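Propose amino acids for all 437 sites.
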């Protein structure tokens, strides 16, 4: 198949640009870009044929064992095998959370465990595409770059550092000093990235890295770069594939910079256009109450998302007050009959604790999504018969301080009714026996 993809203006301005070009905004309107595929060429295969091909590639023994690159024709079709940088990302479990569903009143609840990937978050899915395209561009002299760089609240920096190290490419990450977990800070350090801890929040880091990219000093790896969206959209395709090529009634995703919401729509909409699925699910964008610009816009029936100053939240990866991909996310909401909900610090912490009691181990961002889904169910926006998928964006192993703080009841402003503290006892069998119940 003669397939192609290019950058084009998200708002529809004329002009297209190769994926190997360092361009992040439309030169005409300064709007965001999108990766646009030749859907006419893709449609030469029927939906049934695409399903069969993707099912055949769903294997750890595939030539490139990656959930992203198993869908390569829909992602970056011109990237050759020798340029692909992969750590076996994707193909993550879709966990039927039966006990949690019963506890919260859902008829059918699944959790898509994106945190089981190499660096422990869904950011791997987008980073494999971005770094592979940069790697190919450098090999073909289509790009000259001093380093690949990102602003991050933790997970993006870990993914970029890992994939950059795998490709042998220099990486610079800008982190808000003191606002990421120890586990998240250690990852880019371990992979040899240059870590710059700035005395600001994520939005401040983002402003700096965008200016560096504008000056041509670095290649921008944040999700305003639509190459990230291309990898992350495969989450939608995996959900449909794992449900036997059907789609759930709802997908609930925690979102800060809002690129992941746009990615879900990109995946589901392309699958529908090519006849792989027959409808779109509804979308819930879940935000922390302390970083909720999309929720405020939704509540006010505003299409434009006004920036806010994000307050501290345990869901640190989505502590973003000025989301770059707001315009993309709004398009996703409109097309998918979407809603936006928020969760307080108490609500997200309790949701994590309830999920953990059911056998899951939920990061605070997943707690935001579960809490928001619970609120929608209580208001009967989500019906009892609806099939719901919650996206778990990261491994809770990155947030041990949050977990320990909850059970020690030391998290500020959080009640922790489900805290479970160790009981100190002497090494006496009778004493231990009395404390078994």
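Proposal:
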């Amino acid at each position: 198949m003669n397939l192609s993809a290019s950058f084009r203006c998200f708002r529809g301005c004329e002009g297209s640009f190769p994926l190997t070009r360092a361009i992040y905004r439309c030169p005409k309107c300064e709007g965001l870009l999108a990766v646009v595929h030749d859907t006419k060429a893709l449609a030469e295969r029927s939906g049934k044929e695409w399903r069969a091909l993707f099912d055949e590639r769903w294997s750890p023994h595939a030539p490139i064992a990656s959930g992203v690159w198993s869908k390569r024709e829909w992602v970056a079709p011109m990237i050759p095998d020798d340029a692909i940088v992969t750590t076996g990302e994707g193909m993550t479990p879709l966990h039927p959370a039966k006990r949690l569903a019963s506890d919260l009143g859902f008829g059918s609840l699944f959790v898509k465990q994106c945190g089981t990937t190499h660096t422990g978050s869904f950011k791997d899915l987008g980073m494999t595409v971005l770094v592979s395209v940069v790697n190919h561009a450098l090999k073909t002299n289509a790009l000259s770059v001093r380093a690949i760089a990102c602003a991050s609240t933790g997970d993006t920096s870990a993914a970029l550092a890992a994939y950059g190290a795998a490709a042998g490419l220099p990486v610079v990450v800008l982190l808000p000093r003191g606002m990421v977990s120890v586990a998240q800070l250690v990852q880019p350090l371990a992979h040899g990235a240059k870590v710059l801890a700035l005395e600001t929040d994520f939005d401040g880091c983002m402003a700096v890295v965008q200016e560096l990219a504008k000056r041509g000093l670095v290649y921008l790896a944040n999700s305003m770069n639509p190459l990230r969206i291309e990898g992350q959209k495969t989450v939608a395709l995996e959900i449909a594939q794992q449900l036997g090529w059907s789609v759930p009634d709802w997908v609930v995703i925690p979102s800060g910079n809002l690129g992941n919401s746009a990615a879900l729509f990109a995946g589901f909409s392309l699958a529908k256009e090519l006849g792989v699925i027959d409808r779109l699910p509804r979308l819930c964008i879940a935000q922390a109450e302390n970083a909720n610009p999309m929720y405020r816009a939704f509540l006010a029936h505003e299409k434009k998302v006004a920036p806010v100053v994000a307050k501290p939240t345990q869901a640190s990866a989505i502590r973003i007050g000025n989301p770059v991909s707001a315009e993309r996310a709004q398009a996703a909401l409109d097309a998918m009959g979407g809603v936006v909900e928020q969760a307080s610090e108490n609500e997200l912490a309790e949701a994590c604790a309830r999920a953990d009691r059911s056998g899951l181990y939920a990061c605070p961002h997943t707690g935001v999504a579960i809490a928001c889904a619970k609120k929608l169910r209580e208001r009967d926006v989500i019906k009892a018969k609806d099939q719901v998928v919650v996206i778990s964006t990261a491994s809770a192993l990155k947030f041990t301080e949050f977990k320990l703080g909850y059970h020690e009841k030391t998290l500020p402003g959080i009640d922790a009714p489900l805290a479970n503290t160790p009981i100190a006892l002497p090494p006496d069998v009778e004493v231990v026996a009395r404390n078994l119940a």
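The chain has a mean pLDDT of 96. The chain has 16 helices and 13 strands.
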